[in-house]
What we know:
The protein is mainly beta.
Amino acid sequence: MAVKRPRLAGPLFFAGCVVGLAAYSPLAAQARRGQSPLSQDPLRPSGQNVIPVFDGWFENSDGSYTLCFGYFNLNTEQSLDIPLGPQNRIEPSEYDGLQPTHFDPVPDPSLTSKYRHHWCVFSVTVPDDFGSGDITWTLTSQGDELAVPGALRPEYILEEPTSSGRGAIAPFLRLEEDAPAAQGRRGVWLGPLTVRANEPLPLNAWILHAEPGTWLQWTKHQGPAEVVFNEPEMRLDVAEGLATTLAIFSQPGSYIVRLQAINDLESRRNPTYGFEFHCCWTNGYVRVDVVE
């Protein structure tokens, strides 16, 4: 059965969609027809959609712009894998390929993480003359095709890499001991590393110039099979230091694992915040080739 393809808005839309649908008429109309991917009870253990989210954009020092995208998995227990291709694509196609193919469940607020959607898990950098164009991410999950456009609209400007109002700053991160450190959502890249299937691979992250209590999370970003981390989430109790996890890849193939490191100062001041705050953290990505 054909499903209408709604074009979703960014994070402001999602603050409302988990409460109700009345403010967004295309999805509300689908709800009345019984075809909506967003029900009146949107968070369930399984069977729900993954919704692409445009988190915002910022200008780079060279005049280019970076657009950030995240996602909201409406399942509290079920993760989904959606390979690159017609069901997981970026348009224009020249920007396609760095989006995640693995989607973790909505974070449990009773655990270390306080965040209800997965923020800026990848970014797209466009030239200084991009103007009024847009980047559209389309995901098909549970039989529903959902698309979100990202554009350089002034209401979606992000603070990067610091937030003076909240006293937050993204940590500096390096993935190799002697590599230069970097900061911000555009991310630090390493690899490819090589490991055998079902053998542990140490993954290291050096955190610099941060507040004590930096929160880190490792997860699979892309890849054909399961990746298990012995410590997927952790807090670094010192301002600068090394955090290590072990990753085990169940099958051969090409993978990307993602690290997000955030100076979680505001969460420690106010444990009820989380959904709407979009600064400040640093992404890390490690390419891994897994062999027999």
